[in-house]
Specification:
62% helix, 2 domains, Lysozyme, elongated, mainly alpha
Amino acid sequence: MVSSVPSMTDEAFTALYAQLVAENKKFGSRLSEEALDIAASLRSFSPPDHDESKTRLRHANAAYIAREEGRRIEASRRRAILEDKPYPLVVSSGEDGDERPPIHRQVFRIDPLGVQAILQADQYIKKYAEKYSVDEELIRSVFYIENSQGYYEIGKKITNWAGLTNPPSTSLPSNINPELWQDILPGRDLRHDLDANVEASVKLLARIMERMEDPSIEKVATLYNGLGLDTVSVYGRQVRDVYHSRPWQIWRKLKSKITDEDL
């Protein structure tokens, strides 16, 4: 092979190898290690970053495979939930990290958008919590995190209003994706009908819990946020934390106290 390309110049080889390295830097690249080996063998020397490139490629390929497997699992789980068929959902506890909540939740103990979402939807939360036998406070915890997570929905609305992006794929207060979950509530408008939006999310939570042996708060929330996950996520732990701290109850007590003092 080496003798078959004796006329390749150093410049040509360098350009070829640089192209391969650039390609394998892309997340999910499926270039083989053999491609890098062949490129290196075309000349008598091996570029200094050859081993590093192969290591990077192995990591990229592993990430790609994990991502594709996650998508496959997510699709299978979603299909089982939509068709209401048995499908054991297993999520390992993992390790609690030292992740901190978004800066605004560190500054403000009670997030106004999170509380507002709960107040807006509370009559439906109570209604469908009873219908589907789901803990009301779990629903409130999910809604609180979905609406207080970095104010991303406000950013979407602003950029969409300015004509910079497409409309968001998910819809608050539950942040459910109607394109993915429409069949869980056929014929209802999950995007614009608050009642339907809440019911679809509660029904989804119920079906997730029904398929788990250990439906802990953090595990259920993890799958609500990412159905293809197999380990408790940061999101799951955040929902668990607000489930225990319940800032909406603190807000209600503060409001009640202020109202009483004004009377």
